[in-house]
Write the structure tokens for this entry.
Amino acid sequence: RTGIKERRIARDDEASSDLAVIAARNALEMAETNANDIELILVATSTPDRLFPTTACYVQKKLECPGIPAVDMLAACSGFTYALNTGWQYVATGQYKNVLVIGAETLSKIVNYKDRGTCILLGDSAGAVILKESNTSSEILYGKLGADGRYDDMIIQPAGGSAMPVTKEVLEKGLNLLQMKGREVYKFAVNKFVELTQDAVEKCNITVDDVKLLIPHQVNLRIIESAAEKLNIPMEKVYVNIQKYGNTSAGSIPVALDEANRSGRIKRGDIIVMVAFGAGLTWGSVAIRW
């Protein structure tokens, strides 16, 4: 029912920054860019190495590019769209010429394996992109972000912050682990994916038919298929890799984008729409011309 056949789980000694650095180096190689040319690092993650220093600082350390700003962005599964929209603004305004945007997660570290409703869904991954000024037709066309904190309990890690510090009792109750209301999330996700896609198409003055590839957050195959049906988008125009990785939160969209590019699913000039939602509740979209 979920569409998941495999998942990737980080080793016990691997942190989110370790996965992020691998993704970053792959992106730097593909972009023919040196780590010393990066002027800003944005890491979207809800499973940071530590609350502080930021995971982005660890990425900067491992890439050996000290001195540049390095910031984490926490918007759960929407995190990559938040980071991508933010990085875009820095490049568009001319403040930075090269921005490294990463989505990295080790959800296996916070999964409750006694909760079969969630543990079978989640995996670990990381993906990255380099944002630069473009001298071609390639560009980010549109982006939108949103949140509604009234639904904070739909997807939540109750303990670990200042509202509920970790104690022996907290650990015994598993309150330091992820909790999700699956049925409520399903209803919200389908409607939000449809709304975000329709909004992006409208704001870009195009039609759904003009979208070469829709890359949704890989949350659940049924959710993706339901949204595609409502949008009248054939599944062959929707990128799905959840069968290999499961739901990897902020890592899912950049991994899918990288796979789509390397496999030849997208060509120069193609219009791609990426949509996501996550804990908060948060949501975001980005439309690009490849």
Remarks:
- Residues 92 and 133 are 8 Å apart (CA to CA).
- The first strand starts at residue 40 and ends at 44.
